[in-house]
Amino acid sequence: MAESIAATAGGQAAGTPGSGTDPGSEDSLIRALRPRNFGEYVGQGNVISSLKVAVQAAKQRAEAVDHVLFHGPPGLGKTTLAHIIAREMGVKLTHTSGPALERPVDMVGLLSNLEAGEVLFIDEIHRLSHAVEEYLYSAMEDFVVDFVTGKGAYSRTLSFPLKRFTLVGATTRAGMLSAPLRDRFGMVYHLDYYSPEELTRVVVRSAQILEVKIEMDGAAEIARRSRGVPRVANRLLRRVRDYAEVHGKGVATLPISRKALEIEGVDELGLDRLDRQYLSTLAVQYRGGPAGIEAIAATINEDSQTLVDVVEPFLLKIGFIIRTPQGRKATPEGLSHLGVDGSANADADADRKQGKLGI
Ligand SMILES: Nc1ncnc2c1ncn2[C@@H]1O[C@H](COP(=O)(O)OP(=O)(O)OP(=O)(O)O)[C@@H](O)[C@H]1O
Ligand SMILES: [Mg+2]
Asked: Residue 292 falls within a domain, yes or no?
């Protein structure tokens, strides 16, 4: 397999396993857990079936795979899939990200260095500047980059041919992609949250790699509290492993997992401290809402992007909050999870309607 990771514009390089980092460090453990091929990838059945066909067909034709866009919340496996595509094709992957490509020349440099069939992975592709993005259009569609030289009547457009490459884009914000860019991807996949059963498989697989002894109900408990996200499942497994080594003879049983997750501040539904802080701010300070995201972010002193990308998608999915044109609102289910009386919210609503509350 020729998959490797090339140098990255803007220094976003992701190291290869064994690239000088301590083999026992958290970083190298995280890398070791990343599935390397379709067979190791748990869940997202429809996406995987479709990608397998695309890869197989491209190999048979000795062509590059069509451009692929992955979108969905953080930690669901977008970057992992980009690497798997390259590995399954047996080609090199060049990893970069939207903010790292500051100038058109960065983009042109990367594109012109790609060999036939290679994968260019652009993470956070929604953060490409407009000027840089424009170079991608002809690169993706016609495999050329167009330069304009000179000015006014003397200007000329020069076209440089590129090899047929595969662009893999990843974003947590599909809505922020421009239509011309989005339309140039031959395959667009939304990654959804994983089921507890799928996450149990992720946990068991990771436990094997990390050589953690884990009981099935211990694994299921971690999975149940991982809010549908493999990255969270792997993180919680590492915390449970620490706790089991110190307090539990090294075996991650159900009681050990529960205790470790409680100490981590992860509740039975998988909400962590930040999730609960968000919810309680909305419920108490803003009386259930509606409240604007910037106001909530300022109140809890957290970056609004993090709240939108990480916290809100899960709270929306489990029906604890809703988005309205006026702002975010906590639902009765969200309020009762916090032990806040929903009727206070209803009273506040009624008061607001009568103009009693100045919010
Ligand atoms: N389907 C899966 N099976 C097993 N493990 C997975 C799977 N998807 C993701 N993981 C694990 O979760 C971690 C996070 O995945 P990845 O980095 O690919 O997420 P991402 O979608 O790119 O997140 P971000 O939006 O934050 O970049 C990986 O290191 C991997 O160990
Ligand atoms: Mg990623």
From this structure: yes
